Amino acid sequence: MIITYDIVSDKEAKLKEAAKIACNFWNRFIIPKSPVVIRLGTFKSKGFVIARAYKPYSNKGVVFGPIEFNVKYLDLYDALDIAGTVIHEIGHTLGIGWNKWKDLFHRYTGEFLLQYWEEVPDLQYMTVETGFGPGTQYSHWDEKEFNLELMTGFKDPTEEVLPVTIAVMRLLGHTVIEELAKLTGLDELMEQAEGVVFSRSDDVEKIDKSHSEKTEIMEELYF
Ligand SMILES: [Zn+2]
């Protein structure tokens, strides 16, 4: 079981480079319960949308997470900037914001149910975002409290990752193979991921990555 990518369209191989970093990031920490394919492509718009992520779908046991980037903005960002966004969206594809996640917390307060604290103790300190409406609400950490964290609903120029963002994956059915020891800058983690040589290519060969479905937009990122 692995997290991998499929490039539908690209610009100067930027999405491919970003996808590698993003997949390496997650493959370092977890083994997903089923194979995950992040499908990256481009779209053309004169508007201010940088990227849009579509609702994940599954086919023959493989979970697909489609993301498209506006070509208009691709020149402005380097692979690491794009990788940050892809890492966030993989977080959603792995379950943050849908399926089982929705049963983990109180809808009104955004606080996690007591019964999950034992398995992931840090959840007692976490709150889910309950504001900002569809796309942001219920599918991120609380923006006010966790502003710069990777899985808040708004992108920041510098972001950081809390250990609980990795640990919560356990409750979403995945296997955590490495804990994140402490709050760590996303840049630092991406640099480490960049240096990893992708060594499980045999596993990837066996996955049919080409399956495509059109699903509704889950989240949009604006300039
Ligand atoms: Zn998001």
Structure explained in plain terms:
It is a single chain. With 223 residues, the chain is an alpha+beta fold. The chain has one domain (3-222). It has helices at residues 14-29, 71-74, 79-93, 143-146, 163-167, 186-194, 201-205, and strands at 3-7, 30-31, 36-43, 49-54, 57-59, 62-70, 160-161, 175-176, 184-185, 217-222. The strands form three sheets. Strands 1, 3, 4, 5, 6 and 10 form a six-stranded mixed β-sheet that branches. Strands 2-8 form a two-stranded antiparallel ribbon. Strands 7-9 form a two-stranded antiparallel sheet. Helix 1 crosses helix 3 (79-93) and helix 1 crosses helix 6 (186-194). It is globular and about 45 Å long. The termini are far apart. Residues 88, 92, 140, 153, 219 line the site of zinc ion (ZN). This is Peptidase M10 metallopeptidase domain-containing protein. GO terms for molecular function: metallopeptidase activity.
Listing every helix as H and every strand as E from the N terminus to the C terminus, the arrangement reads EHEEEEEHHHEHEEHHE
Identify low-pLDDT runs: none
Residue fraction in strands:
15-25%
* Number of H/I helices: 7
Mean pLDDT, rounded to whole units? 93
List cofactors, ions and other ligands.
zinc ion
Helix content: 25-40%
Total E-strand runs: 10
User: How many structural domains are formed by the residues?
Assistant: 1
CA-CA gap between termini: 35 Å
What is the molecular shape?
Answer: globular
